[in-house]
Amino acid sequence: MALVVQKFGGTSVGNLERIYAIAKRIAIKHREGLDLVIVVSAMGDTTDELINMAYQIHPNPPSREIDMLLSTGEQVSIALLAIALDRLGIAAISMTGTQVGILTEATHGQARILKIQTERILKHLEQDQVVIVAGFQGTTQSSNGFPEITTLGRGGSDTSAVAIAAALNADACEIYTDVIGILTTDPRAVETAQLIKTISCDEMLELASLGAAVLHPRAVEIARNYGVLLSVRSSWTLSPGTSLVGGYAKHMNNEGLEIGKSVDSAKLIENQAIVRICHLPDIVGITATLFEGLASANVSIDLIAQVNNFNGTVTISFTLADQQLEKACSICRRILNSLKAKDATVIGEGEVSKLSISGVGITSRYGTLARLFEVLAKNNINLRAIATSEVKVSCLIQNKEASKALKAVLHAFELSNCQLYESSSLDDINGSKVKGVALDINQVQISILNVPNHSIVLATICRGLADAFIPIGSMVQLEYRIRSSSLYSRDIILTLYQDDRIKARGILTELLSPWPGVRLEEGSTISRVSAVGVGIRNTPGVAAKMFRSLSIAGINIQMIATSEIRTSCMVDESDGLDALQAVHSCFELGQIT
Ligand code: ASP
Ligand code: MG
């Protein structure tokens, strides 16, 4: 018999009628013969109300007591749902995280799941009962050996459900919510947002990291890491919603369900090339014109970085396969000539390789980026370009240093050669290149200029920010050859949250003091618009289309940072919403499929 884990969110169990309606849905599935484990959140705004009460009494309530308090929310809804099912004649049993044995780390408020004991759930399923489990909570042993209640962090019931599905090796995990599934963008910002029918876990992680709050990112990570068949659906309709695909059926190991390695593969692609265009005038649309020209000549661009320099010029660099280098350079020169961009220079350089690491939480989990750059710096590997995102980081390095770099990275992240895989089979699911578009507001651009040619500076910056828990949004590096020498100087440009600006300034100023020539510059507040899709790479013209849509809307792009499945453009803060709408419509995401 098929075993399905279903999770119902707070709104879906928001009042007694709704609980009863959900119970009826569950009863039908049970009678159809499914084995069901149901995970529920607390009713409606219960969790917020409980937190509110605690803070009315105490400005800084003890975290153990907060977990005691918050876990009661889910305990109410599981019991009421079991009572409703009993009324419908369905045998059901509700259980707290402690009763099931959802073992977590010994931290309150944000505990990660280590292991789920399945014996008790399985026993009740065998007795043909519906098993109802409290989401968002687990249990740990305190230092004196007694069990303690923990919670997983806000929105954590999704994580409970997917973790239970992984532990039980369930046939499916269905997340029921008050929206129809995952949409192409935030419907409050863009009315025409449409349902995404299928999305890969990697794409979803990029979108979640960009603020699409429908699914808890940790739930998607578990689905990705253990190959759980996950879908997001409406509690009130029968539509199939959004399916998440492309997980890897990894075995549970002893590391702890949520504590596995954050990096799980590395890959090297040789014979790549970089093109650098400097001193480009800052004219709206110039980037679009360049990349349209390249796309119409069928040149496949891989990674793109663009920065508007504080002196009013623009620098662009992009990477591509070595054999297309000459063609690309001559196209760029021709376009720049026709645009009368007399000062612009185009420099192409081949014989580089792209080294990438993939995993989960690469930019949101602190320290992974720093570790990568530290390993490369220690091995004296020069980084010619970088591209970062949630599920992948790529570095361009000299061909001759490539195998040494790969070896060092495999060793540092404890990867074996067999982990050199890539999910290329997922390219172009459903034929659409771009799955969704997201907007991040309140970002700020920090430029670290005139960095000598040491990877160690990059490693130092990333380590310093990671140690201070300051997340990096996007990050690019642009290089310049120092006149009449073979040395390079580079600019590293990051985006951070505006709220972290002052803290970051202090940390960076101190960290960079050993390199007196290095300058720190801060830009104004910006918005970041990102298009996400596994079909973006290797598809000439996708990026150009996005750049053109912004230029048609009269929006100047201040910075571009891409990675394999995400293209981000930073624009003026006040242009953010228009930019989101322009990009959403240029990829025809608002059209019903
Ligand atoms: N009730 C918890 C919260 O509101 C967990 C959840 O709903 O997923 O954050
Ligand atoms: Mg939720």
Automatic annotation (TrEMBL):
Residues 357-431, 531-593 form the ACT domain. It comes from the Eukaryota. Belongs to the aspartokinase family. The keyword Lyase does not apply. It holds the Pfam family AA_kinase. One of its GO terms (cellular component) is cytosol. Its EC number is 2.7.2.4. Pathway: Amino-acid biosynthesis; L-lysine biosynthesis via DAP pathway; (S)-tetrahydrodipicolinate from L-aspartate: step 1/4; Amino-acid biosynthesis; L-threonine biosynthesis; L-threonine from L-aspartate: step 1/5; Amino-acid biosynthesis; L-methionine biosynthesis via de novo pathway; L-homoserine from L-aspartate: step 1/3. It comes from Paulinella micropora. GO terms for biological process: homoserine biosynthetic process; lysine biosynthetic process via diaminopimelate; threonine biosynthetic process. PROSITE patterns: ACT (PS51671), ASPARTOKINASE (PS00324). This is aspartate kinase. It catalyses: L-aspartate + ATP = 4-phospho-L-aspartate + ADP. The gene is lysC. InterPro entries: AceGlu_kinase-like_sf, ACT-like_dom_sf, ACT_Aspartokinase, ACT_dom, AKii-LysC-BS, Asp/Glu/Uridylate_kinase, Asp_kinase, Aspartate_kinase_CS. NCBIfam families: asp_kinases (TIGR00657), PRK06635.1-2 (NF005154), PRK06635.1-4 (NF005155), PRK07431.1 (NF005656). Keywords: Amino-acid biosynthesis, ATP-binding, Kinase, Lysine biosynthesis, Nucleotide-binding, Plastid, Transferase. One of its GO terms (molecular function) is aspartate kinase activity.
